[in-house]
Amino acid sequence: MDIVKGNMGWIEVIVGPMFSGKSEELIRRLKRAEIARQRVQIFKPFIDQRYANTEIVSHSGLGIRSDNVRTAAEVLQKVEPRTEVIGIDEAQFLGEDIVDACTKLADSGKRVIVAGLDTDFMGRPFEPMPRLLSLAEEITKLLAICVRCGNPAVHTQRLIASEDLIVVGAGGMYEARCRRCFDPQLAHEKMEEEKRAPGKLRAV
Ligand code: ADP
Ligand code: ZN
Description:
binds adenosine-5'-diphosphate
């Protein structure tokens, strides 16, 4: 955002697959706001408990304190009137209501920075991120590095057998893959295998 006059609020969205640096970028922006002595509040859904409960931590170990919330309504409850910048990580886990919550906060003059996965383990749009993208003033799409071939990775490959949309985890459960190496059927096939021969399941 370049020219912003008065107390205009807005929405910035950071998307990409796992390992693309969304948390890092969110933390960078929030730390810079703090350096500028702005009042910052940071939220993440309770569901994501990797590394720390009261902190957002990137895969590279960068961290910033955060508040756990279970719903978008809880974000609205916890935001203090004087807060100027609001950061939300893993927004795809907060449901549809996060769209209205972000709109409300931006309408009331706050800078809202939201990070989340824009596609799921099947490569499908992961609501509510697509809706947030359409409402945002500024969008950043990050790519990871494909662990198979080194090309830019747009996808999150699930390596374990589950048809659930949400399986939280990082180490060994997911990896970044480019569009060539991404295989959305893999998790399903592994699951079928597990049904036929329980206990023989291995990450692929
Ligand atoms: P995200 O929030 O998008 O999952 P993070 O900000 O937590 O990403 O982590 C990004 C960091 O992860 C990178 O700076 C790098 O150190 C590390 N990393 C591990 N695997 C990969 C990969 N396949 N591609 C890019 N970065 C990776
Ligand atoms: Zn690849």
